[in-house]
Amino acid sequence: MTGLVRHTVAWTASVGAKCFWLLLTAAVAMPFSLTASAHEVRPAYLSVEEHAPNEFSVLFKTPMRGDARLALSALFSGKVESLTPVVSHTTGNAMVQTWRIRALEPLAGQNVVIDGLRNTMTDALVRVQFADGNTWTTRLTPSEPSALIPAFQSGWGVFVTYVGQGIEHIALGFDHLLFVAALMLIVRDWRKLVKAITAFTVAHSITLTCATMGWLTLPSAPVETMIAISIVMVAAEVVRMQRGQVSFAITSPWIVAFAFGLLHGFGFAGALAELGLPQGDIPLALLAFNIGVELGQLAFITVLLSAVYCVRRLVTIPREAAITSAYAIGIVAAYWSVERLDAMFL
Fold first, then answer.
1. DSSP secondary structure, 178-237, as one string
2. Quick one: which of 23, 100, 105, 153 has the most CB atoms within 10 Å?
3. What highest taxon heads this organism's lineage (predicted)?
4. Burial of residue 87, with CB atoms counted within 10 A of its CB: 0-12 exposed, 13-18 middle, 19 or more buried
């Protein structure tokens, strides 16, 4: 009787562990599958450049979903008159509007407002450049859709703004996060994990820098498609490893992480190009954005490792959990691959 009770308890714990892990895997994969794409929530971008005393050229880029554009508009608190009509055209997945304005009151000291931002889930990056070379960059959010334009911004202000943009990009860059998650399923030893993540970081930092500085560029659509395919490939390697098979990716994951990291760096560069860079502080903004990406990536890894640690303290994680997670990651990435391939040939 005692043996039967022990067997029943053990069986119940095993089933409970499997169910718990399956639910955890589904919870992790759900946001990725619901978003369908890695960069659905993209920031708006407002650039205001002074070319003559109190005369500015304005570029306002807003995200689009299909033929629909976010209902956003750029406003100033002081007296401003339009010198030219607004010219609109689409580029990729954004609507770009350009026009010229004259500030009847100094632009420095006015509030810039992105009207309609409160009703969205995205942010807006604002950059103002004066004729004397001074620039100001800030990030507006749905909770804070306006800011005061100062006459001068320190390098620290640029740094903080672009660190925040880097963190936000990796937090919403679900394809990059899924790649890291798949990589963590292959690498079980913490030393090898540090080596693989370091290789991935170094690689995407190289191509991010090269692409941002204009030394080496690749078209965005093929890059995004290959990023999705890279996730499928790594997920497949996880399944192979769980079946006892051996491959180059399993024995030398850091080399694979480096190779695919070069590809992911072009994806980060595309996002940074959409944000725009302050012309006088490009190296600083690039460094800050990269630091933000790394901070977000490390935070994601810490959350995953902490979750696994807590689960292991409660239940025994079944062997099937890794395979289930790999299939979940692979299915979402395969969907992205097909979706992006289809978009390339439309």
1. HHHHHHHHH--SHHHHHHHHHHHHHHHHHHHHHHHTTSS---HHHHHHHHHHHHHHHHHH
2. 153
3. Bacteria
4. exposed
* Cβ pair 279, 220 in contact under 8 A: no
Confidence (pTM) = 0.66
- Distances from the Cα of 11 to the Cαs of 3, 5, 8, 316, in angstroms? 12, 10, 5, 12
pLDDT values of the chain reduced to their tens digit, one per residue, 346 residues: 444 434 433 433 443 344 344 434 444 444 444 444 444 446 889 999 988 888 999 999 988 776 777 889 999 998 899 999 999 888 767 889 999 999 998 888 899 999 999 988 888 889 888 887 777 888 898 999 999 888 766 677 778 888 888 888 888 788 888 899 898 888 877 888 889 889 998 999 999 888 888 888 888 888 888 999 999 999 999 888 888 888 888 888 899 899 999 988 888 887 777 666 666 677 888 888 889 989 999 999 999 889 888 888 888 778 778 888 889 999 999 998 998 888 777 6
Sign of torsion over alpha carbons 236, 250, 192, 307: positive
CATH 2.60.40 fits 44-153, yes or no: yes
